[in-house]
């Protein structure tokens, strides 16, 4: 028996019913249960679906909008998510499989293109192959098989719609899945690209290599003709016809529906199953449907009984599950993700330069406002305080706001790759944090450097480095809060609205507007406090003496003289020694870890609640 026969696969589903519990407080919501313990009645969106798909089948799941096409695809691929309840059985070669095992044996291509568009095709496939522990040669072989050899060096953003679909297919074929599920692979494509994609899918099932199951809506005639089997669903989540495309004429004749000789058959099917249409008006038609389903069921059961003695071997499935090598260790995942993110950043370097230029313009404005301000008089003390606080405020605000867009912008990619277990969510979060830390310190040194060179600070280079380091550490903490707020809401706009309140409170605890001695514990929650106290200590401790004004009265008020830098620190309620800052660094380190852990927990909860597709 050759390799192709030994690798044949049979997917069965029996009595699949999917229901969803409605949300909201609609007046039309039905309730069930005894008084006092009532729950919303679940709405059935798929009813008692039965079927089978085997190697060399290219199956189309067709039906009007709302008929349950995507629900059926998600149910049989065991990738259904959300507040749904699934009843029934799904088997591969007669074996019950778990959701994780199903993902090991099959591939799923979503409807929309989900990839980093700044990467080239070769780079995208290379990273995907590394994460799935597949060799580069194997990835290039699949690219050539799908006809992508001519666009390997082209960025995904510059590809046509059909080429992007093929790139998605190539990513799923890296692990050589036994069954491939595709959610509307021709959506958004013109007739030429749609036909090209379908030709590619047809080549994937040749010689019994695998089975391909697709949902499709209103396919043109040249696309429909490439399917070997059809599952026609009607409104209400029930299946009207399932079987070979060649047998459809006999079936519809048996229920009194003669297919037209010319035209697109798919158009006629949609007319039959559209809401309000009656496809079985007579008892004879109902009997024909029942008879057809009985024959199909007997055929499926006969195939299932032969799984141990025919080409649908269970040993092959067990061996693939036990010898799954398409996962790499967490350390390897972290390295690959860091490399991919770095390459993406390089490709978007022009955008980063634009953002950085705007960011640095703020430092130039601050430097011009406080140009050559020196601690030579009592009046200049307030000027120096304002320059220092404005400097750290702009820096902390900007770095925290910069991460608000990270997870919402990449959520489709995260859900997709986490759902397929390409890598661990914890590794993804860790790589984002690690990648952002050097950027926080770099921008801190750059931003403070412009101001430090322009304002008349009379201190040395070591003080500049110390001020930049403590501000960079505070920026890392601000980024942690930015990630937390982003993961809490899942929306960029909501995160910004919440941050306005949170960072206003943090700014008040920074020490410029309120004396921090009044908040001995709360001040340690504020990243502005750590930055403000740090730069103040590093600056003012190096100032030996400050002349007092000859006239210490302003009108009827007596102005307090602050003769030294230590006196300035005491007046603000800040520490007066370098050793006291060690506690700040320790608290910041602990707080950074705790905030990131909380943010990760919220991100994981959000991803699981939103689903993976």
Strand order of the largest sheet: 8-9-10-5-11-12
Low-confidence stretches: 1-6, 305-309
Total helical segments:
22
Give the biggest beta sheet: 6 strands, mixed
Fraction of helical residues: 40-55%
- Based on Cα principal axes, name the global outline: elongated
User: What is the number of beta strands?
Assistant: 14
Structural class: alpha/beta
Report how far the terminal alpha carbons are from each other: 38 Å
Strand content: 5-15%
Calculate Rg over CA atoms: 32 Å
Mean pLDDT: 82
List the keywords.
613 residues, alpha/beta, 22 helices, four-stranded antiparallel sheet, single chain, six-stranded mixed sheet
Describe the fold and architecture.
38% of the residues are buried. This protein has helices spanning 3-6, 69-76, 99-105, 121-131, 136-145, 161-173, 191-204, 221-224, 248-254, 265-273, 283-305, 314-322, 330-347, 349-369, 378-402, 406-419, 425-454, 461-489, 492-508, 527-540, 565-572, 581-610, and strands at 10-20, 31-32, 39-40, 43-54, 58-62, 84-92, 95-96, 106-109, 179-183, 211-215, 229-234, 238-244, 553-554, 557-558. It is 53% helix and 12% strand. Helix 15 (378-402) packs antiparallel against helix 17 (425-454) and helix 20 packs antiparallel against helix 21. The model is unreliable at 1-6 and 305-309 (pLDDT under 50). The chain has 22 helices and 14 strands.
């Amino acid at each position: 028996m050759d390799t192709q026969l030994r690798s044949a696969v049979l997917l069965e589903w029996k009595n699949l019913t999917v229901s969803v519990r409605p949300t909201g407080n609609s007046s039309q919501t039905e309730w069930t249960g005894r008084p006092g313990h009532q729950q919303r009645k679940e709405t059935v969106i798929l009813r008692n679906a039965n079927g089978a798909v085997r190697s060399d089948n290219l199956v189309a799941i067709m039906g009007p909008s709302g008929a349950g096409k995507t629900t059926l695809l998600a149910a049989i691929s065991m990738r259904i998510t959300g507040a749904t309840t699934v009843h029934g059985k799904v088997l591969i070669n007669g074996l019950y499989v778990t959701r994780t095992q199903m993902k090991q044996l099959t591939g799923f291509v979503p409807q929309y293109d989900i990839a980093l568009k700044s990467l080239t095709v070769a780079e995208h496939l290379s990273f995907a192959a590394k994460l799935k522990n597949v060799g580069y040669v194997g990835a290039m072989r699949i690219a050539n098989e799908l006809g992508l050899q001519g666009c390997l060096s082209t960025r995904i953003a510059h590809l046509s719609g059909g080429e992007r679909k093929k790139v998605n297919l190539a990513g799923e074929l890296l692990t050589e899945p036994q069954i491939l599920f595709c959610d509307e692979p021709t959506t958004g494509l013109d007739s030429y690209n749609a036909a090209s994609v379908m030709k590619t899918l047809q080549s994937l099932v040749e010689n019994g290599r695998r089975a391909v199951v697709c949902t499709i809506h209103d396919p043109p005639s040249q696309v429909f003709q490439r399917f070997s089997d059809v599952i026609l669903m009607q409104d209400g989540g029930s299946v009207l016809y399932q079987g070979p495309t060649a047998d459809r004429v006999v079936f519809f004749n048996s229920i009194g529906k003669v297919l037209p000789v010319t035209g697109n058959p798919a158009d006629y099917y949609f007319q039959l199953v559209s809401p309000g249409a009656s496809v079985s008006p007579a008892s004879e038609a109902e009997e024909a449907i029942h008879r057809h389903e009985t024959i199909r069921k007997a055929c499926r059961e006969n195939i299932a009984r032969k799984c141990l003695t025919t080409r649908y071997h269970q040993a092959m499935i067990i061996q693939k599950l036990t010898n799954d090598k398409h996962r790499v260790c967490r350390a390897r995942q972290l390295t690959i993700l860091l490399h991919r993110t770095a390459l993406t950043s390089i490709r978007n370097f022009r955008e980063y330069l634009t953002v950085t230029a705007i960011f640095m313009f703020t430092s130039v404005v601050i430097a011009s406002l406080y140009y050559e301000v020196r601690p030579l008089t009592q009046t200049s003390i307030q000027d120096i305080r304002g320059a220092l606080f404005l400097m750290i405020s702009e820096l902390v605000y900007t770095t925290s706001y910069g991460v608000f867009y990270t997870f919402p912008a990449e959520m489709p990619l995260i859900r997709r790759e986490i759902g397929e277990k390409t890598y661990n969510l914890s590794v993804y979060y860790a790589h984002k944090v690690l990648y952002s830390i050097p950027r926080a310190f770099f921008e801190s040194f750059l931003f403070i450097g412009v101001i430090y060179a322009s304002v008349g600070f009379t201190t040395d280079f070591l003080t500049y480095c110390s001020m930049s380091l403590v501000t960079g550490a505070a920026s890392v903490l601000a980024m942690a809060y930015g990630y937390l707020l982003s993961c809490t809401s899942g929306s960029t706009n909501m995160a910004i609205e919440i941050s306005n309140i949170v960072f206003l409170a943090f700014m008040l605890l920074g020490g410029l507007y309120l004396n921090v001695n009044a908040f001995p514990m709360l001040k340690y929650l504020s990243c502005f406090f750590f930055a403000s106290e740090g730069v103040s200590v590093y600056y003012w401790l190096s100032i030996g003496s400050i002349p007092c004004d000859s006239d210490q009265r302003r009108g009827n008020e007596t102005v307090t003289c602050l003769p030294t830098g230590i006196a300035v620190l005491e007046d603000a309620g800040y520490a007066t020694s370098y050793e006291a800052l060690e506690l700040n660094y320790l608290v910041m380190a602990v707080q950074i870890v705790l905030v990131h852990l909380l943010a990760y927990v919220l991100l994981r909860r959000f991803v699981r609640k939103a689903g993976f597709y």
